[in-house]
Amino acid sequence: MTITIGEWLKQNPEALRQPDPLPAEPPSWEPSRWFALTVEPLREAYAAGHLIGRRIACYLPAVAVWCRRGRAMQWRTEPMFRGYVFIRVGQASAADEVGRARHLPGVTGVVPAADTDEALAAIRETDIARMRTEEALSFRRKREAMPYEGRLNPGDPVTIAEGAFADFGGHIAELIDAERAKVLVVIFGRATPVILPVWMLEAG
Q: Over the Cα atoms of the chain, what is R_g?
């Protein structure tokens, strides 16, 4: 079931108030944080495509939903949070990177901090992990209901049939395992590697 980010934050009010402590990293690796961006309604994938095309790490959580469409029931892939995407940027350059991201096509703003002195609201790693878990479970339910029986090989041209990048084209760069493939997706004229479940892909 798709819920709004507002509903999710009501269930997890600490998400914007208590960011995880930064781990101890080597000086050569810059710490990073997740932030939530607001995007134009029903244009989450459009905004995510521009973010990824500008080499900004972006996460658009999606869920597989068994729902009625017309007279038939079918599986659909929908954004977990309508009107939002998440980006990961370096801690030291967060303000500049978020400022750059918010001016890209499809992006309308940044989720503000709540009850803190921070200018930007950092999303905790544990909350991103929970989103990924919920996402994986929903697609596992779909996979169990509709087993994938296709055959793909590195180099094959594919079209993404559903999900955040539905209708984008690309080529199989690598078959990671029986369930996932690395696809070079052509996003706004630039080939960008994206890891996707194989059942989201159609040959050709």
A: 18
22: tokens are 């930064």
pTM: 0.60
Domain spans in the chain, listed from the N-terminal domain onward: 1-18+32-146, 148-204
Q: Is 128 exposed, middle or buried (0-12, 13-18, 19+ CB in 10 A)?
A: middle
Q: Give the count of beta carbons closer than 10 Å to the beta carbon of residue 79.
A: 21
Domain 1-18+32-146: CATH superfamily is NusG, N-terminal domain (3.30.70.940)
69-99 pLDDT, tens digit each: 777 777 778 888 889 999 998 877 888 888 8
Indicate the fold that domain 148-204 takes in CATH. SH3 type barrels. (2.30.30)
